[in-house]
Amino acid sequence: MMDSVSVIVIGAGPSGISLAHTLKHKLGFNDFTFYDKLDGPGGTWRQNTYPGVGCDVPTLLYSFSFNQNPNWSKELCEGPEILECEFDSILPLKYKPTEIIGLDMEDTVDKFDLRKHMQFGVECTSASWNSQGFWEINLVDTKTQVKYTRTPLYSYLQSVVSLSLGRSNLLEWRNLVVRFFHTARWNHHFDYSGKRLAVIGNGCSAAQVVPAISQKAGYVKQYARSAQWYHERPNRPFTSFEKWCLGNIPLWERYLRLRLFLTSDSLVATYLPGPAAEKVRAKAESGARQYIYQTAPKEYHKFLVPDFPLGCKRRIFDPNYLESLHRSNVELAPVGIDHIDETGITGTDGVRTEFDAIMLATGFDVQKFIVPMEVYGKDGKALSQQWLESRGAQAYMGVYVHNFPNFGLLFGPNTFPAHNSVLFASEVQVEYLARTLLAPIIDHRISSLEVKSTSENQWVNALQTELKGSVFEAGCSNWYINPHGRNSASWPGYASTYWKETLKPQVGVFNRVYRSKFWIGNTVWRWIRTTKKESYFMLLLSLAGFMWHRKSVSAHQLPFIYRKIVS
Ligand SMILES: Cc1cc2nc3c(=O)[nH]c(=O)nc-3n(C[C@H](O)[C@H](O)[C@H](O)COP(=O)(O)OP(=O)(O)OC[C@H]3O[C@@H](n4cnc5c(N)ncnc54)[C@H](O)[C@@H]3O)c2cc1C
């Protein structure tokens, strides 16, 4: 039996919010429901509340294009400001009310009336395409554990990555006396002031958490197995005048955003194969090396400077991490972990250290999309099995997977832009989905859409060929490359190229089941309903201008004016 829900989306993170905005305001469609296992919107920014959490892409760029915010406090904002969360009492990063004027995730959801479409505390456990050609979505209420099923006309599932617990298997969980948590599950009930803390890992999260916690902790020992490239990260607060300009000068924020976008995108040149890229990379490496030598304590220089090319691991724009290594209560141990016992850690150097708490800054299992839920396609095959057979996650344009009709992914395989904002990539995917799947279904033009397996494979193979020789494959251990040796995470080139790719006509790529001959009427009606008043005003203004121009220019003048324009 079909119920009234027509679109189901799993996940109300930034990508989901962007999709909700498009469904409601660009497509004029209201028959959709979002389910998220968290207690509110924001995804990553709701889950990652560790001290120091923040954005490493300028926030003017890492923000929704449809809800520009002139009140960002600084160039690179911290997590609470991005989320506008209500954890003030437990988060170490407190903002005065005046500083949280702009807001982002929460504000966007309310401003565009999206909250009523969202149900929180509901987890999707599995989904399957049934024999009648509909999705069946199995859900569980995370509080009551009540299980139920929803059958939308078509489904949309958002990609999700899982935590990487990496080296945590080296411990005996049951006997643990020390506190132990991942940075993405920060225990705010634990007061770490004056305590002895271990941080395992040295990626982006560790670089943020070490300088933040070492301000209050008694002792912080960081276990790091390999080096990273660090760059300076100036982070200037915006002045009141700058905020005024952002809010009051038309298109000023758009202009700055575009400038930031182009600058970020140009950094991709350092990652590409070939001698030209190597030259650019050598220059960037020299700058980073200098920065490390100038900022970090001398005793760590040898370990800190990598022997792999810049970009092979995600580069770190330093949030005062190297500076914090000078603190007397901070120790960087360039060793792995042999084992963890009840009260301490023994490193691979044989040194055992006692701790009050162990923090895993081991990142995320970026290769695992939409886990732990399982999705079953047309022939009953699980997506995880299909992806095992293809030697890693893959999707046409990072969005569509064969055997899975009326199903799309956001922030899916190979859509991670090297230096640019993930929100840009997500918004591009939302637009692409709206055009290829959602609008045609809403207009009753089609009842189903599925990418052809050959199109998917050809697209993915071409992309993998492009990735060959890129810096991601330079041999360091990184989260881009999966156990089969394939890179299922990175987009190989410029973020703008991905956008252009979505605009190309997609001829012969999809199998479509057509529905109504009269769809064009629905499309026109949708356009009429969703076109903004300002657009009608501009259209009327242009028409009036055209009429006035025709009236004021007599017929015999026209050829002369025409000649003047074209000359
Ligand atoms: C600490 C940190 C800092 C980052 N900084 C940047 C940055 O500076 N710039 C940048 O571009 N990117 C950054 N990123 C990447 C960031 O993840 C993306 O920018 C963004 O969050 C992607 O949004 P999303 O909505 O696709 O996924 P997410 O934010 O992960 O949201 C997914 C949502 O789906 C929900 N969900 C998952 N599974 C289920 C299920 N089975 N049932 C119900 N709900 C489910 C989750 O609860 C979550 O709310 C950062 C990531 C982290 C972890």
From TrEMBL:
Keywords assigned: FAD, Flavoprotein
Record-linked Pfam families: NAD_binding_8 (PF13450)
Entry-linked InterPro entries: FAD-bind_Monooxygenase_sf, FAD/NAD-bd_sf
Cofactor needs: FAD
Xref: SUPFAM superfamilies: FAD/NAD(P)-binding domain
Entry's family note: Belongs to the FAD-binding monooxygenase family.
Name this protein carries in UniProt: Monooxygenase
Origin species: Penicillium salamii
